[in-house]
């Protein structure tokens, strides 16, 4: 079968591979729509280490075409929503924690692109179909579901990590699709003032529609200093959804004592997360620094779809570009890599 | 000075009392606007036990006219927002808990009407003015602040107790002003489907505008059975904002295993909270049953005002009746007691 | 094969049944040692509803004699520790909660005796062997492991539900094996004063050795009143590990505002959990009422065995009677049912 | 009056100062016993910035000799236990958080040595005496109380921040008095294996008596690598109670995904807390990094004294050197600064 990915780092390409084999608990899914993500381009550029001959893609909705003998709930022909994180629910990391992305070691619950081929393929494999695949409820569009499986789930995880309380002042650094979802999630979680940091015009408009109170540019002097000035001393909660090691320092510094910094940004292997001790109150500030990976499983996605169904949020505002045809995956992926000013998120109908 | 309250149970009346004395940490406040609450009428009818010669009222915004020698922040002439709960922050119950209503014993942080005269007076006393009085920020109306000091704070406390997660299905029993605020708070906290239980037309309209997905009547058969049917087995979170002992049983029963029941309803001394063991899974269901009283202090009110200022919520939709003139407190109070169909919340400009 | 259980309610008996079939994820285990529990006798007497022709028993350590084709970790011949709760980890109730006993509905993660035959058999079935079976580490005896799988896990779950903080005053009602484990767990969690309620001499001695500060009898006047007097107003945390509907009322009443009541007692279908509204502060007290069922899975048991291995606790003090031989299960079970004064917990080496 | 402190950085000396003035909510206390702390020597060496003419010391038990007009509970002649952190309970940082050390800005609740003279004086000032001073219960020695006010409270705060669960594997870096208290606290909170890192023989013995399972030296190769090897991949919780910026990196690295790093070490203004992104799982690991300062107030100290009174812990094992006489404060302080091998904690009877 055909798939799109990399032959080696920096070499995106169409690949020819065997159709994946369906285990007894698993499903084989044919994608109906997929979306490239900057994590896919990150992999291509080597941000996650050496990879060869790998099909990319981890955001998809599709049709189950085959299910294993032990699968009870999902049936061939079902339209399925595929979480980007599909844990092995029988692994020990699931027990005693809600952070299901680490089923049997760090981020091991994230399988696509990480430990197996991704979803930019004629067929892809989903482990433990009953636990990992969700059905589309009436009132939720496939496009909305596609924005939920990683973007909304990851952005909302940032909000959960930040433990936002009613009326908290929140800074969100980065207004790519995950940052935008973090803004929407913060507003939907009862944040008061939300200060978004970013510059891309298309994103700024959506940021405001999702509840950003103000937009601050990365440019114009030290970000931490400016946000501390705007807020009379700092924010209660800071979400990092973009940036590098220096962003980390700024995030800790702009957060007040007893506040929380929540990171869902994928730092690069080369990044160093450095902070002078004083920005953390010499280790005495009661500032929590948290990070996380998108939780997995069907219930996560079902809960987020419920928010869409009940009209609490419309994640399709992220979609700026639509492609039609399986072979347009390449164009969408290369667009994601180039990141023109008017892009937030492209999708491809297969 | 003049105040409105009760000479004894069931005898509402204007009273003549001494102007309260200002302690060194305290303030004397002249009300600008007040709102009667069903807790005030509850007191009149003896729901909180025997009371005589007591000025009622615990929801007010006003002007500080005198402050004690040790008060640093509040000054005479300041327009102040008065939380209904004004804890003694030096008491031991404050330390080690966020439930500040119990500063030195159960609900002792609630002073007005409870351990001293209320706010339906020419002047009223506020203990620890710097810790308990908030200022009105630009962008928040006095009417909005007046709806915050008890109604929104209590309704939102229910939401906090319920520990609502993104996409949770929530039932809110009772759509008086506190129930309506609980609906708004649940929507603002990321609830999915919100099922509101009530029948008053004026409230139903506001409930929908605040985010209720459906309205269910108290009538039409066992409430728990109907909600379990509507939801395929029960809701994740139930908020009790009205009702009696039977409501308690229904609330526990309509909630799924691992769910939470959060009560902010003031039960009557005569109520018995009875449940057959099976509705609680014979004591094995991991259903949490929680209750609470409106937290106190200025920061609570400041945070909630921040939500209004940032446009996240408009609590003034609760206000259905406005009176002008200090002596209209009587009319407003008697209206609250009668509860006509078109009433949600009356206010009085003094 | 042979098993011990009930032909119908009130009719304990040896039964002849087919050896259970091993599914692809499962294991068949031959018991090495088992322990009867009052939950087993409860089932015999109909406390959990109608049951016929059912093998009893849910506390066992044993030898895996057969494993399914998809089992990777457990092998035939392995000595295995069997949690009393063995959830289906692929079910939706696992996702988004740590209360794994409710995998697909209330208490459905508890399979033995509940939805299938128990462990008092020549062979018994364990679903999802890799996720549910633990290995015995060096330094932990089989007897200790046998006391962990339900007694210690359930008693410690009570402590977790009670959210005991350093120095909290705790009441534990009931000093059967679960109550004793709750006492030990409370001490090991940093409780200050622990007041245990019970009368059986054998248990009293063990209660003291596990950290009970004082022992109070059920007799001698209203329990809530006496404990409130002893503590100057009530305890911060109350654990219910025995009793009936009246115990529930007492537990809520003896707990201070902002405190927690944690129940792990299996109430009877006929019990009514009744409280006058005032013992709950008319619904305003911020007293949390929680309950739960023993969490499942191998990691739970591994963590508790780690406590034994590191010398933090010795759960074998519960064992007062030892039987040798598979056919002594009957004697042990009937002893458990009779509950002589010197009994805490019997075990049977098979 | 006479006090011991610094005339300027690096110049410890006896000072002559005015006796402090007692405000209406405050008390003047005469020390009965005090203990120097490495935070005092840290101040002398400039670790907290420029300081001149300051009396040092923040650990004391004493006798109240004067109380303000508004003080109700404490009376002259009372023996009082003085928390090292004495928040202004009327300040806004108290409201909405349990981290009371930040009453009106970062660490502002820590007054002694920080914003006013310390306790190495004939008389010292305690703000808000009723909220901040505790009484010594029967069964607790003054020496035990003296070890509680900072050492035990800070060490136990580390344990609270680490959110230790039953059976968790914990690393404690540093076995000075705070690290030792963290070990004791971890054991008392239900930790399983506790790996302590340190080399001082006197401390090692006490560490073992408090529950350390193993002692690891700082020397012998990369600490993170060694602890990961010992534990098969890392610990669940790491407590930092000593060290520098490099310790921070090691702590994050030795902690597993979904684990927590809790710091109570006072880093130096010159320290840089640097970590390569990969030790934090590139920001995806769900490893929480937390820090904090000793919480304040009487209830905190009362709860910890309850642990001593009930025989759960004996903090006096920290005391290795006792001095008699107010003027021996100098010797004790200089000993603390020199840190001979046999020193854990010195105290002075005044």
Write the layout of secondary structure elements.
The structure is a homotetramer of 350-residue chains.
Chain A (H helix, E strand, L loop, with lengths): L1 E7 L2 E6 L10 E8 L3 H7 L9 E2 L4 E8 L11 E4 L41 E3 L2 H4 L1 E2 L6 H21 L7 E4 L3 H12 L5 E4 L3 H9 L4 E3 L6 H8 L4 E6 L4 H10 E9 L8 E5 L11 E4 L6 H12 L9 E6 L4 H10 L6 E5 L1
Parallel strand pairs in A: 9-10, 9-12, 10-11, 12-13, 13-15, 16-17
Antiparallel strand pairs in A: 1-2, 1-4, 3-5, 3-7, 3-17, 5-6, 6-8
Fold and architecture overview:
The structure is a homotetramer of 350-residue chains. Chain A has helices at residues 38-44, 129-132, 142-162, 177-188, 201-209, 223-230, 245-254, 298-309, 329-338, and strands at residues 2-8, 11-16, 27-34, 54-55, 60-67, 79-82, 124-126, 134-135, 170-173, 194-197, 214-216, 235-240, 255-263, 272-276, 288-291, 319-324, 345-349. The two termini of chain A are 14 Å apart. In chain A, helix 3 crosses helix 4 (177-188). Chain A is α/β, with parallel strands linked by helices and 350 residues long. Chains in contact: A-B, A-C, A-D, B-C, B-D, C-D. Chain B binds chain D through residues 24-25, 70, 89-92, 94-98, 100, 128, 130-131, 297-300, 303, and chain D through 24-25, 70, 89-92, 94-98, 100, 128, 130-131, 297-300, 303. Strand 14 of chain B pairs antiparallel with strand 14 of chain C.
CATH class of the largest domain in chain A: Alpha Beta
Most extensive chain-chain interface: A-D, 47 and 47 residues
Main sheet characteristics of chain A: 7 strands, mixed
Rg measurement of chain A, Å: 20 Å
């Amino acid at each position: 079968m055909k798939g799109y990915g990399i032959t080696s780092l920096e070499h995106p390409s169409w690949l020819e591979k065997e159709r994946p084999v369906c285990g007894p608990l698993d499903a084989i899914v044919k994608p109906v729509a997929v979306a490239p993500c900057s994590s896919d381009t990150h992999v291509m550029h080597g941000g996650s280490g050496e990879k060869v001959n790998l099909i990319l893609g981890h955001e998809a909705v599709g049709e189950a075409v085959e299910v294993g003998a032990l699968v009870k709930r999902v049936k061939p022909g079902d339209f399925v929503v595929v979480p980007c994180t599909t844990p092995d629910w029988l692994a020990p990391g699931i027990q005693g924690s809600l952070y299901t992305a680490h089923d049997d070691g760090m981020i091991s619950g994230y399988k696509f692109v990480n430990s197996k081929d991704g979803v930019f393929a004629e067929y892809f494999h989903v482990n433990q179909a009953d636990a990992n695949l969700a059905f589309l409820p009436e009132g939720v569009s496939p496009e909305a579901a596609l924005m939920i499986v990683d973007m909304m789930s990851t952005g909302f995880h940032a909000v959960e990590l930040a433990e936002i309380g009613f009326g908290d002042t929140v800074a969100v650094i980065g207004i790519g699709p995950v940052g935008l979802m973090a803004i929407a999630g913060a507003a939907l979680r009862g944040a008061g003032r939300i200060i978004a940091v970013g510059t891309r015009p298309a994103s700024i408009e959506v940021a405001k529609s999702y509840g950003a109170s103000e937009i601050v540019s990365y440019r114009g002097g030290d970000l931490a200093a400016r946000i501390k000035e705007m807020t009379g001393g700092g924010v209660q909660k800071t979400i990092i959804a973009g940036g590098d090691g220096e962003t980390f320092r700024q995030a800790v510094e702009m957060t007040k004592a007893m506040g929380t910094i929540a990171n869902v940004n994928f730092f690069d292997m080369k990044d160093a997360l450095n902070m002078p001790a004083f920005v953390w109150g010499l280790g005495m500030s009661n500032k929590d620094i948290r990070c996380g990976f998108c939780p997995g499983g069907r219930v996560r996605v079902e809960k987020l779809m419920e928010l869409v169904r009940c009209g609490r949020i419309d994640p399709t505002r992220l979609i700026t570009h639509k492609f039609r045809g399986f072979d347009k995956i390449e164009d969408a992926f290369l667009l994601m890599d180039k990141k023109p000013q008017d892009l937030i998120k492209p999708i491809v109908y297969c």
